[in-house]
Amino acid sequence: MMEMRPKLLCPSILNLAIDNIREEVEKLDATDMDIYHVDLMDGTFVPNFGMSVRELEMIRRVTDRGARKLIDCHMMVMNPHNYIEKVAQAGADIIYIHPESELIPSATLELIQMQGKKTGLILNPCTALERVKDMLPITDYVMIMAVNPGFAGREFMPYTRQKFIELNSYREEHGLDYHLLLDGGATKEIISDLYHNCGVEGFVLGKQELFFQEEDYAACIDRIRAY
Ligand code: DX5
Ligand code: ZN
């Protein structure tokens, strides 16, 4: 019987319209959600622009006056080491980097640690375990993308399921303790399968389950906890 870790529910703020992002973050803050997921993009590492350090600072201010939730920053930028200090100062608690975005990703993880923040590695659908396994002992959070990065609202690519299984087995076999999470395409069926069968505890939530639903955020979060 697999040990069940508590779910980590991570609303993807990219899904919110810029017009009312602050009010929506205030509503999210009052729920039982766990970690804000903030997508930074540079238009080079991925063919799109996402959020910026200013939105990160705004979310930090809102939650510091509210429930004091954790914030993660998903850096879809080339050479993220140039921006770690800025992102840390803006209030990210967990900083995810893509191994392909750096010549020496392990040095960037060390930089994140030196800022007193939690380290995160985020793998594209085609990034092999082999590429990151030596860095796993210094990684607190491992996120696997089940969609190609840069856009919200895409469908879960089924071949990525095997990578969750590998990262979960690797964690057990090597006595490591990183959190394992999904970014992209999280539906009820996917969340339930990955949580119960593949040792995945964290889920980035988008339009499929959390945003633009008939129920309010609190009811959605409760519903997802029960999947
Ligand atoms: C995609 C982003 C995700 C995105 C996921 O590049 O990293 O955070 O919001 O959205 P959904 O859950 O809609 O696929
Ligand atoms: Zn993301």
Provide the descriptors you would attach to this structure in a database record.
single chain; about 230 residues; binds D-xylitol-5-phosphate; binds zinc ion; Ribul_P_3_epim-like; Aldolase_TIM; D-ribulose-phosphate 3-epimerase activity
General description of the model:
With 227 residues, the protein is α/β, with parallel strands linked by helices. 33% of the residues lie in helices and 19% in strands. It has 8 helices and 8 strands. The protein has helices spanning 21-29, 53-64, 84-90, 105-114, 129-132, 161-173, 188-197, 217-225; strands at residues 8-11, 35-41, 70-76, 94-97, 118-123, 141-145, 179-183, 202-205. An 8-stranded parallel sheet has the order 1-8-7-6-5-4-3-2. Helix 1 packs across helix 2 (53-64). The longest helix is centred in the C-terminal third of the chain and has 13 residues, at 161-173. It is globular and about 40 Å long. 42% of the residues are buried. The model has no long low-confidence stretch (mean pLDDT 97). Bound molecules: D-xylitol-5-phosphate and zinc ion (ZN). Residues 12, 14-15, 37, 39, 74, 147, 149-154, 183-186, 204, 206-207 line the site of D-xylitol-5-phosphate.
